[in-house]
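Students often ask why we bother encoding 3D structure as a string. The short answer is that it lets us treat folding as translation between two languages. Here is a chain of 209 residues written in the first language.
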Amino acid sequence: MTVTHERFEQGMTYAAYKEQMTRNRARLEENERTVELVASDLAFFHALPEALKVVVITEDWCGDAIANLPVLARLAEASGKLELRIFLRDQNLDLMDQYLKEGKYRSVPTIVFFSADLRQLGVWIERPAKITAQQSAELETLLSTAPELQGIDPNTSPALLPEAARNRVMRFYTEFQARTRVDANAEVVREVRALVEAGLARQEASHGA
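And here it is in the second language, the structure alphabet:
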């Protein structure tokens, strides 16, 4: 199954997505205000011959989406070369199940980049790899030192933890995102640019073959 122009247009614009949010809108918009874009990255996107189409699969309860979707939105606004359409994961499983993380996880945000004629360029999921590694290392340290987290499996969903442990883990995620936001924002843009560059290069190579 592929994304057609008709299916793409069924998605929400970023503004419409924000209007229907039932939680975390203030956090999302605060994150928007902190995004700083580098001139060289903007120049790359400005130079694209036509706007790319971008499918975003997300939910407003997701911390990674609240942190990272504003970066993409600001890049789209400033460059004029990313046309976003946003789909709620749980209402669009036909899309979500095409882009499962590791072939099995319905992870959000999942962001899929397409050429103007909807040839897929690449998929970006959750958060930057560098930030994932840093977060995992710091969480592992916390799990080994915090009294309320002793014996907790690091792969356990916070929703399944006892209340005290869940609160401590969620506080960790909130504090981590606040502390690493500038670096994380830069990594989002770096990874997205690299993904688009690689996708366009593959497309050009296939045309020349």
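Translate back mentally: Strands lie at 52-58, 82-88, 110-114, 120-125. Keep this in mind for the problem set.
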